[in-house]
UniProtKB/TrEMBL annotation:
Gene Ontology MF: a single term: protein heterodimerization activity
Compartments it resides in: Nucleus
Phylogenetic lineage: Eukaryota, Fungi, Fungi incertae sedis, Zoopagomycota, Kickxellomycotina
One Gene Ontology term from the biological process aspect of the record: RNA polymerase II preinitiation complex assembly
Protein name: Transcription initiation factor TFIID subunit 13
Homology family: Belongs to the TAF13 family.
Species of the source: Linderina pennispora
Keywords: Initiation factor, Nucleus, Protein biosynthesis, Transcription, Transcription regulation
Length: 104
């Protein structure tokens, strides 16, 4: 058919990057133990779009440097205090882990 897009072609196949983790997260946040695959797929689409948008914002913040840094991601998340605080918490924990490893 002319103008028909084949959604089963390799170009449009889903990679299911978070196929194992998302149902567990959904259950942990109150969903049923085995959520519908359609629900998982929709949530994965939203998650992948969010990650892509955040990476694009960080890349724009990096500008002509050509290298995206943690500071660029912090800048991209500056309008969401909860996410920014979580990023800073994870960075602090990573530093603690690195310090502990260097002691052994």
């Amino acid at each position: 058919m002319e103008g028909h897009v084949d959604l089963t072609s390799k170009q449009f196949q889903r990679h299911k990057l978070f196929g194992k983790e998302l149902p567990l997260l959904m259950y942990g946040f109150g969903d049923v133990i085995s959520p519908l695959p359609e629900s998982v797929n929709v949530l994965e689409d939203i998650l992948v779009d969010y990650i892509n948008d955040t990476c694009i914002q960080a890349a724009k913040a990096a500008g002509k440097r050509g290298r995206v840094t943690v500071e660029d991601f912090k800048f991209a998340l500056r309008k969401d205090p909860k996410k920014l605080a979580r990023v800073e918490e994870l960075i602090a924990m990573n530093k603690e882990i690195e310090t502990a490893r260097s002691l052994f």
